[in-house]
Every structure is written in C-alpha cells, then in structure tokens.
Design the sequence.
C-alpha cells in the first residue's frame, strides 16, 4: 500500500470518527433533554384531552349540553391564544427551565382542581385558566430546540417530540377508560373526578423536577464536556451563518412578513384536526355503537397509533428530499378526506376508526413538517415572536372548532355539517402553504 493511499485511509477514518462523535453528542443531548420534555408533553395532552372522556359522565353531573361542552372546550384557547407570544418571549428572556417549571405547576394544579367542579361556570373558568397556564409550552419548546439543534436536525427531533401526543392518545384513552370504569364512587367521588385528579397530579411533580433538571443552553450544561459543548455551539453558529442575510431578526419584522400569516393558516389545520381527534373521538366511537367506556378508551388509541407511524414515515421522506410544502399538503389532504368521509360512516365503528386515523395522519404529520419552516428564515426576537404569532393565530381555529361542532351536534343530532366545514378548512390550509411559502424558504 502506498503512502498516499495510507494517508487517505487515515484521513477518512478521522472524518468518520468526528462524525460519530458529533452523533454521539447529539444523542446525549436528546436523551438528556428530549426524553424529559417528551414525558412533559405526554402529561400536557393527558391533562388537555382527558375532558373528552370525562364528558361522557361530566355533562350529566354539571348539566352541560353538547353546545355548552363545546364552549367549555373552546374557552381553553382564549388564554392560550392571548399569552402564546408573551410566554414565548419570556422564555427567551428567563430560559426554558423556569418557563417549563411555571407552566407545568400551573397546569397540573388547575387540572387536579377540576376534580372538584360542581357547576358549569366552574368548568368554563377552569378551562380558561388551563389554557392560560399552558400558553407558550409548545412554541417555547420549538424555540428551545433552536438553542440546541441546527436546522437539518430539528424536523427529526420535532417529529419524535410530537410522538408524545400520540403516546398520550395511546396511553390516555385506555387509562381514562380504566379510571372511568373502576373508580366510580370510590371514597364518594365520581369517576370523572378521579380522572382529573389522577391524571393532573403527575404534571405538578414533573414541574418540580424541571426546575432542577433542565438546562437553558449548551454553554450551561454541566453534563456536557467542553468538547461536546463546542460541537453544539459550532453547529449552531454554522446554522446562523447559513441563514439569508436579510433574515428578519426583530419582532416587528416578523409581524410584517406575510409568510408568518400563511404559516399560521397552515398551522390552524392541526388544531382543527385535533378538535375532532382530541375532544370528540370518544363521542364518535360511542355513537358508532360501542357502549363500554373501557372499550371506547382502547379503540380511541388506534387512530393515534396510525398517526404516529405515518408521521415518522412522512417526516423522514420530507427530510430525505428536503421538501416541505408538498408533504404538508399531502398530510392535510388526508385529514380533509377523513373528516369528510366520517360524515357518511358515523354509525359503523370500524369505518369511523379508519376515518379518524386519516384525521390523525394530518394532525401529526402536518405539525411535524410545518414547524421546520419558520426557523429557516427567522432569527432572534423574530424567531421567538414569529413562532408565538404563528402558534397563537393558528389556535383561532381550535377556539371555534369545538363550539361549531358542539352547536351542530346539539341542533342536528349529527356532526356532519361541522365535519364538512373542518374538512374544507383543513384542505384550504394545506393549499395556502403550498402556494404562499416560496420553495427556497421551505427548505432547511
């Protein structure tokens, strides 16, 4: 073997070792931070959507109609929308550790307190306060990822993080069904009271842990070596240099950027699908002919499983092709078809599960893809504020969705008209992103 060949082999080995070291570093970060945040997000969704199971008995005890229930669900999004941007900007100032601690302690406390509701106004107040407490968690985590991962890694991490929602659905449905089935009148409390208390308490515990466990930035991580810190910081600096020179860095610039509002319209498709999946799945399955609450809980997990697998496949395809817009519109189209077809098949439970699974594909895959777009052209305050604006404006659909579906169900005894409206809006949101976000800006 020649000296030159030997030299080439040594150089290749060194490059491979460097790449392996980088991968090992990011694996370490992911295990340390994202595992804990994954658990937090699971608890978040358990506390947010357990009301869909509680309402099977809650409505009778509090005297709530379907319209009143839909209103209570929607009130969650008032505080959520109003405080998304301030909470995200506050995270940029005080760090994720204090922000996540504050959010989780508040939402856990409010969720457990819902166990003691005795009147409709208390349900409305609790849902409003719960939304205000949770405001900023999701966009804050999206911002937090930009402190640790360069652009090419964030879609994969985001998709894995979103698996927490699927895990909450997979775990939460059977768990909620089990609690409702087995905790009726235990110690004199109704089963839905136990549901709120038992599923809210872990969030309080996780909030305490967050204060001592999370690290705001790589430079502060005592669990990383100096070399590992340097690998992460250099990756982030290279990422910043790769952004366009005219990338908005101020909040006002982000507010004047039309892409922010196009992406908000796209993001709105996700909570619209979530309205069906998170708040009405139990009712739809019951209406399709399943009466046992434990069986309802088990069946409700199936759409989340399908959505989780589809999200991983679609997100991987999007990353390999470095393409976002067509993957996004394909995802939203699946959700629109599922919602529209559900109007014809609400009395056939296997068909209803298939339709809910299509809605779930849109719910998960669209969310994983769309959040890979804003950080590619926003920096600094514009990133924090812009992400918050997109998230909060997108939740407007989540506010009106439950009200409309609940009102339609009360007036007609069917979800059909409301589901068709959701289908049309979800499809339109996908087309808006396809047409309104220029191709170069949709690539990391």
Sequence:
């Amino acid at each position: 073997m020649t000296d030159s060949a030997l030299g080439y082999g040594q150089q290749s080995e060194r490059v491979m070792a460097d790449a392996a070291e980088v991968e090992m570093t990011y694996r370490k970060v992911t295990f340390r931070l994202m595992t804990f945040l994954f658990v937090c997000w699971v608890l978040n969704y358990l506390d947010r959507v357990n009301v869909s199971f509680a309402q099977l008995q809650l409505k009778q005890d509090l005297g709530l109609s379907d319209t009143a229930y839909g209103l209570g669900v929607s009130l969650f999004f008032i505080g959520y929308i109003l405080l998304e941007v301030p909470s995200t900007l506050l995270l940029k100032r005080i760090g994720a550790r204090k922000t996540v601690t504050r959010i989780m302690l508040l939402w856990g406390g409010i969720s457990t307190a819902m166990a003691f509701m005795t009147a409709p106004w208390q349900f409305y107040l609790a849902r409003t306060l719960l939304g205000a407490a949770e405001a900023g968690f999701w966009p804050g985590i999206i911002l937090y990822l930009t402190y640790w991962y360069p652009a090419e890694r964030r879609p994969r991490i985001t998709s894995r993080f979103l698996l927490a929602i699927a895990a909450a659905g997979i775990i939460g449905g059977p768990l909620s069904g089990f609690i409702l089935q087995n905790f009726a009148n235990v110690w004199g409390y109704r089963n839905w009271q136990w549901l709120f208390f038992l599923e809210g308490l872990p969030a309080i515990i996780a909030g305490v842990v967050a204060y001592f466990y999370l690290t705001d930035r790589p430079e502060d991580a005592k669990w990383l070596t100096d070399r590992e810190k340097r690998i992460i910081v250099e990756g982030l600096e290279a990422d910043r240099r790769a952004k366009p020179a005219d990338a908005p860095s101020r909040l006002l610039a982000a507010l004047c950027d039309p892409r922010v509002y196009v992406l908000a319209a796209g993001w709105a498709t996700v909570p619209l699908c979530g309205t069906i999946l998170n708040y009405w799945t139990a009712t739809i399955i019951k209406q399709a002919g399943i009466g046992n609450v434990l069986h309802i809980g088990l069946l409700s997990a199936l759409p989340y499983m399908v959505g989780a697998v589809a999200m991983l496949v679609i997100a991987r395809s999007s990353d390999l092709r470095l393409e976002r817009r067509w993957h996004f519109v394909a995802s939203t189209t699946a959700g629109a078809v599922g919602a529209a077809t559900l109007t014809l098949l609400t009395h056939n439970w296997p068909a209803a599960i298939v339709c809910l699974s299509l809605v779930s594909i849109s719910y998960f895959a669209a969310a994983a893809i769309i959040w890979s777009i804003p950080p590619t052209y926003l920096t600094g305050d514009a990133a924090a504020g812009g992400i918050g604006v997109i998230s909060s404006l997108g939740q407007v659909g989540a506010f009106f969705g439950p009200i409309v579906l609940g009102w339609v169900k009360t007036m007609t005894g069917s979800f059909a008209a409301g589901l068709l409206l959701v289908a049309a809006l979800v499809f339109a949101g996908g087309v808006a992103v396809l047409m309104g976000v220029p191709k170069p800006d949709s690539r990391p």
In short: The chain has 18 helices and no strands. The domain at 17-442 is CATH 1.20.1250.20 (Growth Hormone; Chain: A;). The first helix runs from residue 3 to 49. The two ends are 42 Å apart (CA to CA).
